[in-house]
Write a structure and sequence with these properties.
Helices cover 43% and strands 9% of the residues. The protein is mainly alpha-helical and 107 residues long. Helix 2 links the parallel strand 1 and strand 2. It starts with 18 loop residues before the first helix and ends in a 10-residue tail after the last helix.
Length: 107
């Protein structure tokens, strides 16, 4: 809802999807940015696989990661090409700074 309130069209894929399914959704939707959550460090390897797939298949696509685990693994995630957000507003700012401006609202 945070991004929608700021003019973004959001597709929520849910949680726990494998890298291949996330990559397929990105190919189909062609988003301006991808926002992912890392709630705990136990899931870091899975997230790194997702980031690697997205980075390979969609170079230049802004990848923003938030959550408690993301803050703890900031250095690793940034080396993997992600931008780490401290909260929703920071994630929005990071995506916009990467030229991921939302489409204009329908008039």
């Amino acid at each position: 809802m945070f991004l929608e309130a700021r003019g973004w069209q959001v597709s929520n894929l849910g949680g726990g999807l494998p890298a291949a399914q996330i990559a397929a959704a990105v190919r189909a939707v062609r988003p301006h940015a991808v926002f992912l959550t890392l709630p705990m460090l136990l899931l870091l390897d899975d997230l790194l696989a997702v980031l690697g797939t997205l980075r390979r298949d969609h170079p230049g696509l802004p990848l923003v990661v938030g959550g408690r685990g993301a803050r703890s693994a900031r250095d690793v995630l940034e080396r993997a090409g992600a931008r780490v957000a401290t909260d929703f507003a920071d994630g929005h700012r990071l995506a916009e700074a990467a030229d991921a401006t939302p489409p204009a609202a329908d008039a």
